[in-house]
Write a structure and sequence with these properties.
Layout: E1 2-6, E2 9-16, E3 23-27, H1 38-41, E4 50-54, H2 70-83, E5 89-94, H3 96-103, E6 113-117, H4 147-156, H5 161-173, H6 176-186, H7 194-199, E7 204-210, H8 218-225, E8 232-237, H9 243-246, H10 248-285
Parallel strand pairs: 3-4, 3-5, 5-6, 6-7, 7-8
Antiparallel strand pairs: 1-2, 2-4
Helix pairs in contact: 2-3, 4-5
Protein name: Alpha/beta hydrolase
Keywords: Hydrolase
InterPro entries: AB_hydrolase_1, AB_hydrolase_fold, AB_hydrolase_sf
């Protein structure tokens, strides 16, 4: 693991395949950590990409903040990627990590694409239909919960065995102020409309819809938000809220397919734009 200080915030991260030019930045969910992506770290399906796994502030081994918001998290992440000099990248955002990735679109650098799972884009004003009412999810918005409540939440996310133990440990290790702070933030009227941010984004977007997810409303995503938007695509996977853990091989294959297509299309567009710019300059000189 590595540490990097960004404006006084210590970020813990892991890198794989650092010789590769195109990167996938993995962003974990609320009260998780980079450990949730252990099944992606050594995947042969992702070997052609630089893989970056980061603990968001207040999670894992990264330092805590005084206040939390998706805007602050995305700004810290922007400085993090600029420091690492990563320019060609796609976000793989799980749950809250997906919201951070969407809000990243307001920063000065832009990803080539968004691969989102467990992330219903939030409208402004907040639309509660994005989520499925589920009393077992209440610990995600509480500073303190007992072990039974946390264990039940992880069962709801379909974690089992060692993965469940890791998820419980990550939850207990998360800054308690984070859950209350981020809940207040995402339900306020202060944030960008994430649906509009995606609509104005000129990169590739994929929502991986987990068919057994009991926490979010997949119909809200596919029909209420983006039913007629050509650059937003949908794919399904037979899993609960954390498909990267539960169905890792299928997940990794779908992620690799998306990245291959998104990077190739973006690089081809950039090449055509550079050629057109070069021709225009030659015409002006002549």
């Amino acid at each position: 693991m590595k540490k990097l200080s960004i404006n006084g915030v210590s970020l813990n991260f892991i890198e794989k395949n650092i010789e590769q030019e195109c990167a996938i930045i993995f962003l974990h969910g609320n009260s998780h950590s980079l450990r949730t992506f252990s099944k992606q770290m050594e995947s042969p399906l992702l070997k052609n990409y630089r893989l970056v796994f980061v603990d968001l502030p207040g999670h894992g081994e990264s330092s805590a903040l005084e206040t939390y918001s998706v805007k602050i998290l995305s700004q810290i992440l922007s400085e993090f990627l600029k420091t690492l000099e990563i320019n060609k990248f796609i976000f793989a955002g799980h749950s809250l990590g997906g919201h951070v990735a969407i809000n990243f679109l307001k920063t000065e650098i832009k990803p080539y694409g968004l691969f989102l799972f467990g992330t219903p884009p939030l409208k402004n004003p907040f639309d509660a239909r994005a989520f499925t009412p589920n009393p077992n999810a209440f610990p995600m918005g509480k500073s303190e919960s007992n072990y039974v409540e946390i264990s039940t939440l992880m069962d709801e996310m379909n974690y089992v065995g060692p993965e469940k133990a890791i998820a419980i440990g990550d939850f207990l290790n998360t800054d308690p102020k984070f859950r209350l702070g981020i809940l207040e933030d995402v339900t306020s009227f202060k944030n960008e409309d994430e649906v509009e941010l995606i609509k104005s984004f000129n990169g590739a977007v994929m929502f991986l819809l987990a068919t057994k997810d009991s926490l979010i409303n997949n119909t809200y995503i596919s029909q209420e938000c983006f039913s007629n938007l050509s650059q937003v695509h949908f794919n399904e996977i037979e899993a609960g809220h954390s498909p990267h853990v539960e169905m890792d091989v299928d997940f990794n294959r779908k992620l690799a397919e998306f990245c291959n297509k998104a990077f190739n299309e973006k690089i081809e567009i950039e090449f055509k734009n550079d050629r057109q710019h070069e021709r225009s300059q030659n015409e002006q000189r002549n």
